[in-house]
Amino acid sequence: MSDPLFLVRGLTVEFGGLTALSGLDMEVNPGEIVGLIGPNGAGKTTAFNAITGIVRPSAGRVYFRGTDITHWSPPRIASAGIARTFQSIRLYDDLTVAENVMVASHSAISYTFLEAIVGLGRFSREERRIQEKAERLLDLMGLTEFARERASSLPYGSQRKLEVARALALEPSLLLLDEPVAGMNPAETMEFSNLLRKIREDLDLSIALIEHDMGFVMKICHTITVIDHGIPIARGAPGEIKTNEQVIAAYLGE
Amino acid sequence: MESEARSPLQHKTRDRVLTLLSVGALFAFLWYADHHFSPYSIRILNNIAIFIILAVSYNLINGVTGQFSLEPNAFVAVGAYTSALLTLSPEEKIRSFIIEPIVWPLSEISVSFPVSLLCAGLLTALMALLMSIPVFRVRGDYLAIVTLGFGEVIQVVANNLVSITNGPLGLKGLHPHTTLWWSWGFCVLTVFSVVRLVRSSYGRAMQAVREDETAAQAMGINAFRTKTLAFTFSAFFEGVAGGLLAHLITTISPSLFTFFLTFHLLIIIVVGGLGSTTGVVVAAALFTWGGEFLRIVEEPTTIFGYYYEGIPGMRMVILSLLLIVVMLFARRGLMGGKEFSWQALIDWTGRLIALAKRCV
Q1: What residue in B sits closest to A52 (Cα-Cα)?
Q2: Could you tell me the CA-to-CA distances from B191 to B30, B126, B195, B279 in Å, in that order?
Q3: What superfamily would CATH give domain A1-81+181-254?
Q4: Which of chain B's termini has less CB crowding within 10 Å, N or C?
């Protein structure tokens, strides 16, 4: 078996005396879509936060492309190629939709702030490139008509899409989606899963996602990990998970 | 309906020409003012320029980057003292420092005004750079308290480091170098630099940090570095403004740089609309001019046959009332948090003309 793109071993997060996540193992191979599911409060978002450096894990290791990124800072992890969206939408409300996407290009700029003031050479060239990239991504997510509007004025579903567009502007190789279809109706969910498949193929992405919509998860994921009370209880293909007794028990609260 | 479709590039060229023309008009006005206005009016014009520099640069850290800090009085003090100590002649220094003689290298140094301004800016910026390491470990209210404390520390230092600052006596006999050209020249430079910075990727990063620091970090933005850039950048211009201020009023002492100065700037940037450079420019001009204009309410006058004695301090009451009105009816400031653009002005004038035509 080839090396996985992304590997998590024994990831544990403790807040004071509370263990929010205990010994999570996870791997994502290139081009794979991996699901992370579990009842509310199971520690799924905590896992994402620990992976992206927002929360410090108390034990365990995270490897990305064979490099140990466990205690890296969030911006460093993001620049290395792991982008994410947030469960509770976290856009830059006062900026325009286009600017929201352009922000994510900041870590890759090569001009200095002095060049920005004088406005010579690299500056205009790069600004044009950043803008074109934003336009391309907005087009991909079907948000072009909103480009000049404030992010907070977008309808809910479009805000979720904008989060994805913004994450894609980082040009990641791994995309972490935290409940991407929450609040969407079945038709929108369907449309979104088609879009996600397209993005994955076009941009050569791997995806890890948290979702409560089981129909969506079962349809789109190659592998699923189930967590309950911070403890991983099952891992496998959608078919196996569906019939796993422990998983059924966790969801039905037995 | 748009009668002629123009490309964004044409708009850009048009906007640039219009901006250059208005800067030209500003300097033509200054030239006229320089020759025909009274010294009192010229003094107000200088004050306006200096307060625009201060408010616009303060707005970069407080409004654009959203880091509520309260230190500009300290930065202005550092800039003013640096620049003043560099331009004063050695003889003047010996005359002034009567409590304790001035320390050696400073006692000999005397440089030209522009060099002293540059040094003031750079030293203040360096100070901000060093300060940002401890200061940006905290956010929100804590940041406000820490920076406020820094302002007080500078005050104490200025009062007690007698062999450098001459203590509470301050520095006297500065040459009035600050002319309309220097103050407005730096004012235009400051506004230009800040606007350009805010419109670049660095500016977007600053705004992203203001809007949601965690989300900004998750998008690869180093929040600490971004805040430090904004802080240092604004400190540079505040230092320069301090130098200009010192050479305008020609006498400086620690009591000039109390928290009240910061508070004044804070009101200006809130009224102008946090984050809106245009709004802040307008508010700085209005407050500086208005503060002088409102002196009439403190002087005895006769209105429609009634004798009004004039109440000292009445100006501040009116300014405070204005602030309350702004907070009640325009919470996002004069410009509603927006920036001036030529396109908006042209559209607006077009609408006004159309309205006038319909009325006729």
Answers
A1: B218
A2: 17, 21, 6, 12
A3: P-loop containing nucleotide triphosphate hydrolases (3.40.50.300)
A4: N
Amino acid identity, position A126? E
- A210: closest CA among A56, A42, A24? A42
pTM for the full predicted model: 0.91
Q: Please say if the pLDDT value at position A1 is more than 50.
A: no
pLDDT in tens, A205-223: 999 999 988 889 999 999 9
CA distance B81 to B166: 10
Query: Which residue in the block uniquely carries the two structure tokens 């006692």?
Result: B107
Asked if B299 is an interface residue toward chain A (Cβ–Cβ < 8 A), one would say: no
What is the CB-side half-sphere exposure of residue B7 using CA atoms within 13 A? 3
Query: Is 50 exceeded by the pLDDT of residue B4?
Result: no
- Hey, is the C-beta of A150 within 8 angstroms of any chain B C-beta? no
Nearest 5°: the CA angle A219, A223, A227 is 105
Ranges of H-type helices in chain B: 8-36, 39-59, 72-87, 90-96, 104-108, 113-135, 140-160, 162-165, 180-199, 201-211, 213-218, 223-249, 259-272, 277-293, 314-329, 342-359
Q: What count of other Cβ atoms lies within 10 Å of the Cβ of residue A156?
A: 12
**Residue ranges, CATH 3.40.50.300, chain A:** 1-81+181-254
Q: How far apart are the first and last CA of chain B?
A: 22
Contact assignment for A106 to B233 by CB distance below 8 Å: no
Phi/psi zone of residue A149: left (φ > 0), alpha (ψ -120 to 50 degrees), beta?
A: beta
What are A60's two structure tokens? 């365990």
pLDDT tens for each residue of B238-292 = 999 999 999 999 999 999 999 989 999 998 998 898 889 999 999 999 989 988 8
Chains A and B form CB pairs within 8 A to the count of 108
Q: Cα(A120)–Cα(A128) distance, rounded to whole angstroms?
A: 13
Question: B172 touching A, CB under 8 A?
Answer: no
Query: Which of A153, A211, A223 has the alpha carbon at shortest distance from A183?
Result: A211
User: Tokens 């220097």 label which residue?
Assistant: B182
Tell me which chain A residue has its CA closest to the CA of residue B274: A94
Kindly list the distances between the CA atom of residue B151 and the CA atoms of A234, B53, B70, B296, in Å, as whole numbers in the listed order.
58, 19, 8, 33
Which chain B residues are closer than 8 Å to A90 by Cβ? 212, 214-215
On whether any CB of chain A is under 8 Å from the CB of B332, the answer is no
CA angle at B19 for the pair B28 and B181, rounded to the nearest 5°: 35
